[in-house]
Request: fold
Amino acid sequence: MSKILCLNLCYHSNEFVIIIRDYKNYSELISIISRVHKYISTPWLVHNNPISINCSTGIAIYPKDGKTSIQLMKNADIAMYEAKKLGRNQYHFFTEKLNKKVQDIISLTKDMTEALKDNEYELYYQPKVSIKNSKICGVEALIRWNSKNGLVPPNKFIPLAEENNFILQLGDWIVDEALNQYILWKKNGIDLVMSINISAKQISQKNFAKELIKKIDYYEINYSKIDLEITEYMFLENREFTNENLEKLLEKNISISLDDFGTGYSSLSYLKKFPINNLKIDKTFVDDYSTKEGSIFLETIVKMAQALNMRVIAEGIEEEAQLEYLKKISCDQYQGYYFSKPLKAKDLEELYFRIIS
Ligand code: C2E
Ligand code: MG
Ligand code: MG
Reply:
């Protein structure tokens, strides 16, 4: 058993290092860490109010996890961030697997940024279809990364782009590309509402609404032809400019859709506060349509949204039976592989003309 251990302790935004020179085995280590956690999290009184704090601990062991103090601290730090993800008062040992995960994230971050310069991003478009008359009434722009190593799905890089703020740069590109595509299609006789996914980071920027309105004006697009898909998550963070931006956008009649409804920490208060135009019911709810509880939820959401003057769009429709059910409960629109997967711009165009001819 190695003799030296480097413990990196994150204690609120301050970090401390504990070096333990002699210990018998891992059990003894864990017992020391548990004692430290217990001591730190014991509440104390400040003006008669109990205050308690938590800490997360990352563990690197000499010489297996590093032979220099710098290497040990770096690896203890990596382990500490993993501990933080586990929740409060947790510890995590550094492992090679963890190291690889971090290295992969670092290289993905670098590649993701370069991909913008190398034109590797592309928008695909998935139709939104009217349930009443089966006509395409809009499209949702969905980003794809054609990387040198193959297609990278958005779920793999969007969360990372949000973490390191690259989403702001990428988001600008997405908006420009989608507006451009709207104009191109309009010239070709396709006038569909363009839905663009907007992340919480973007909409919390001071000038987000102002800059977007400027772009829409520049392209001379009717505001009502642009729809922004936002998620419940952005209301949770209560960032200073989010509400202000939303108000400005709604004032201009730019349409707002609440995406993935039901998957976040749904609070109906913001539905009351903002006149959101569309509510998109998440696929997980639609998948459950044939169970008693599932159908009650779906029907209730549709009724509530429509009573609040919102249009309801069901996501992820893969079967005819799901569509038939949505018809029965008077849902307004749907999206899903049953009608079409997200398509390249030229394929969407082909599909559109094939359907209307
Ligand atoms: P989302 O906005 O909720 O998009 C719906 C996702 O469901 C898309 O996945 C779409 O391809 C997929 N989908 C549609 N119909 C079906 C179906 O019938 N079955 C199944 N299994 N899936 C279906 P995608 O394109 O992989 O995007 C995933 C998420 O990544 C999006 O969820 C959105 O949160 C994010 N995303 C995608 N493009 C953008 C973007 O341009 N900007 C931002 N900020 N986020 C984006
Ligand atoms: Mg969406
Ligand atoms: Mg969604």
